[in-house]
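pinned: reference chain
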Amino acid sequence: MSGHVVVIGAGTMGHGIAQVTAMAGYDVALVDTSADLARRGIERITANLDEGVRRGKLDEAQREATLARIRPFTSVAEAAPDAFLAVEAVPERLDLKTAVFAELEHHAAPDTIFASNTSSLSITTLQRATARPEQVVGMHFFNPVHINRLLELVRGRDTSQETMDAAVAFAGRIGKDAIVVNDSPGFATSRLGVLLGLEAIRMVEGGVASPADIDKAMELGYRHPMGPLRLTDLVGLDVRLDIARYLHTELKSDAYRPPALLEQMVAEGRLGKKSGRGFYDWSGS
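pinned: its structure tokens
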């Protein structure tokens, strides 16, 4: 797999995808809608690398080499030519993701693989935005990308075996443990993880226990590395709400109906870590 990788979206997921890809030795074009957003993405990567150096996970030479491989862009047209892989990491809205794929269709090389970082949207539907559906695959990374080893690879209806093989090989090259699932609402991870998170929110809503105690129950009793409410704060309550609405519609199950508390918190701007407050207070972090 020669050439460079394009990552579209420099936010929570995109900057992490760019970081692990560059750390694996690939040149990365990191694209966002403005130079300021792309710069912020690189600043977050720099902060992650600095923390890695502080903890002894990498040295200064590795830090500098990683940063040297990442270039910011504000245009897919400039970033995409000659890339062997383009990964979109824009917000979890079908219209935004299909628009990115449609733009890539005009500017990427004929053999470029298109990957979506969606955590729940249909890969088969996204394939319809391109003339190369066999080269479209889901690559669902997990936050924080530079720490979490899981990569959920999703096969759409038309995804070729060659594309799946390339995706599995790429996952290994960037140090991820891949699972392969067929396209279905929520795939494997979101379908299970969102269900647990929504029930935890209903427990808070019903006064069963505090967020901290609900999380501790799952961390200590079931050995989850992070409780469902803290994870919801990390992912973003708005993101969780969008996914819940989508799964509720697609699966027609009340288990995925968004709790009123989740709707209320999003309306109030309590989105979790990125807003400074969710189920926990993140203002000092």
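why pinned: The first strand starts at residue 4 and ends at 8. The first helix runs from residue 14 to 23.
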